[in-house]
Write a structure and sequence with these properties.
This protein is of the alpha/beta class and 214 residues long. Helix content is 48%, strand content 14%. The chain is globular, with a radius of gyration of 16 Å. Bound molecules: adenosine monophosphate (AMP).
Length: 214
């Protein structure tokens, strides 16, 4: 199964992808996570990407596409994958089409995770992450950690992502509308698009996505 998750920042792509990957035994490829790991390790890619990420802008297509091509060559993606946060521009979608064609692979579905803007802003401002194991939480939803500020899984102190402040959130939403939302029309033409209304319980939304793609 090869899936793309589309949706605004804060739509819940990472949360639903994490659960589906566990259920289906395939990896999630999150370009945001790969970039953050590069920033943390201080690689050349990380240093370049950080200047864009901190402002809520997009990292240049060429850098992200090369990074994705590397990731898609790994052994663990053979049974399938969920792409979370890629593609984010029409140019990235076109590069992905070429990459998949070269590998003789087809996409199974493109899942558009649709959430009202007010819900997205509430979710983004409540988001917390674990710097130790990467687990995600949200103090404004039922994804709160058991103990405030502490990771349930590894006990590390939770942090707010540096791009989850108000000014950056507004910029990320604007970038989404201008550069990423046009992908909905791009994939609608392929007949692969499944739109999921993503309000309610996480388990129900995951079940809805699963039913739509199988
Ligand atoms: P995310 O974790 O998906 O919200 O991504 C965090 C940040 O990483 C974004 O705001 C962008 O700056 C950068 N990023 C992640 N994926 C991409 C992509 N496909 N193209 C360009 N920039 C990206």
């Amino acid at each position: 199964m090869r899936l793309i998750f589309l949706g605004a920042p804060g739509a819940g792509k990472g949360t639903y992808a994490a659960q589906l990957c566990q259920q289906m035994g395939i990896p999630t490829i999150s370009t945001g996570d790969i970039l953050r790991a590069n920033v943390k390790q201080g690689t050349a890619l990380g240093q370049e990407a950080k200047t864009y990420m901190d402002k809520g802008g997009l990292v240049p297509d060429e850098l992200v596409t090369r990074m994705l091509a590397d990731r898609l060559s790994a052994e663990d993606v053979k049974p399938g994958f969920i792409l979370d946060g890629f593609p984010r521009t029409i140019a990235q979608a076109q590069s992905l089409d070429v990459l998949l064609k070269e590998k003789g692979l087809n996409l199974t579905a493109v899942v558009n995770i649709d959430v009202p803007r007010e819900v997205i802003i509430r979710r983004l401002s409540g988001r917390r992450m674990c710097p130790g194991c990467g687990a995600n939480y949200n103090v404004n939803t039922n994804l709160k950690p058991k103990q405030a500020g502490v990771c349930d899984k590894c006990g590390a102190a939770l942090i707010t992502r540096s791009d989850d402040n108000e000014a950056t959130i507004m910029n990320r939403l604007q970038v989404y509308e201008q550069q990423t939302a046009p992908l909905i029309a791009y994939y609608q033409k392929t007949g692969l698009m499944k739109t999921i209304q993503a309000e309610g319980e996480i388990a129900d939304i995951v079940a809805r996505i699963r039913a739509a793609v199988s």
